[in-house]
Automatic annotation (TrEMBL):
Classification via PROSITE patterns: FE2OG_OXY
GO terms, molecular function: broad specificity oxidative DNA demethylase activity; cytosine C-5 DNA demethylase activity; ferrous iron binding
Family: Belongs to the alkB family.
UniProt-annotated binding residues for 2-oxoglutarate: N130, Y132, H142, H221, R233, T237, R239
Protein name per the record: Fe2OG dioxygenase domain-containing protein
GO BP, sorted A to Z: DNA alkylation repair
Residues engaged in binding substrate: D145
Top-level taxonomic group: Eukaryota
Residue span, Fe2OG dioxygenase domain: 123-242
Length: 242
């Protein structure tokens, strides 16, 4: 492992090459996604992948899922949580992960610097890591709309390893919102309804996907099972607890 490689200053040409393929997608009504195909160069991305795969204390906890009855089920991927000191505890489905510190994994601090540089003004203070060991590992439809991230969270997601598909779909409208639209002229109503309501991205090795604005309020996202994805993918989602 050669981490001083990560510290080598980058020239302007290399930086331009790195942020090549920046796309910004306006989802409408104040929601936006940005996709940078190459935040981290190819070789450096493998160095990160190997480090994370080996050194992160991955766990696959069981969580409580309640339908007609409550069941203990294994999460369909490995995870780990990192947070700055003093943040409120994070929990989901009755599971509270241990919060590691940034100092536990120094290379992640380098990655955080790169993300901050790509997103001027951002100040992430927590991180959820996911490891998908093959195409059967997945994350189902959800939104990261926990109150602790505030009403318009920016979430920056870096991927390493196997390409996987990332889907976004518009949340079903609440009946109160529908009633509001009912009161509007037909032309305006049509414009809102005809807006594209599903997007698919292939998240590449070394890429950065950012969700911002009202994306967590109005949209759901998922990384579905894929029979053909045999290799491991590691994903890091940087967040700001406010
Ligand atoms: O793996 C991904 O790209 C998404 C992960 C995710 O949505 C999450 O951790 O909340
Ligand atoms: Fe998510």
């Amino acid at each position: 492992m050669n981490f001083f490689k990560l510290k080598r200053p980058e020239n302007e040409e290399a930086k331009e090459e790195r942020v090549k393929g920046k796309q910004s997608i306006d989802l409408g009504n104040g929601s936006e996604v940005i996709y940078i195909q190459r935040l981290v160069g190819f070789e450096k991305s493998w160095t990160f992948f190997d480090y994370l795969n080996k050194h992160i204390p991955w766990i696959r906890p069981t969580i409580r899922v309640c339908g007609r009855q409550c069941l203990q089920v294994k999460r369909p991927r490995d995870t780990c949580y990192v947070a700055s000191p003093g943040l409120p505890e994070m929990g989901y489905s009755g599971y509270k992960p241990h919060a590691y510190t940034w100092d536990d994994f120094p290379p992640i601090k380098d990655l955080l610097d790169m993300v901050h540089e790509a997103l001027p003004g951002s100040k992430f203070n927590s991180l959820l890591l996911n490891r998908y060991k093959g195409g059967n590992d997945y994350v189902g439809w959800h939104a990261d709309d926990e109150k602790l991230y505030g009403p318009t969270p920016q979430i920056a997601s870096v991927s390493f390893g196997c390409d996987r598909e990332f889907l976004l779909k518009k949340r079903p409208m609440k009946s109160s919102q529908e009633r509001r639209l009912d009161g509007e002229p037909a032309s305006k109503r049509l414009k809102k309804i005809s807006h594209v309501d599903q997007y698919s991205f292939t998240l590449k090795h070394g890429s950065l996907l950012v969700m911002r604005g009202y994306t967590q309020r109005d949209w759901l996202h998922s990384v579905p099972k894929r029979a053909k994805a045999e290799a491991t993918r590691i994903n890091l989602t940087f967040r700001q607890v406010v």
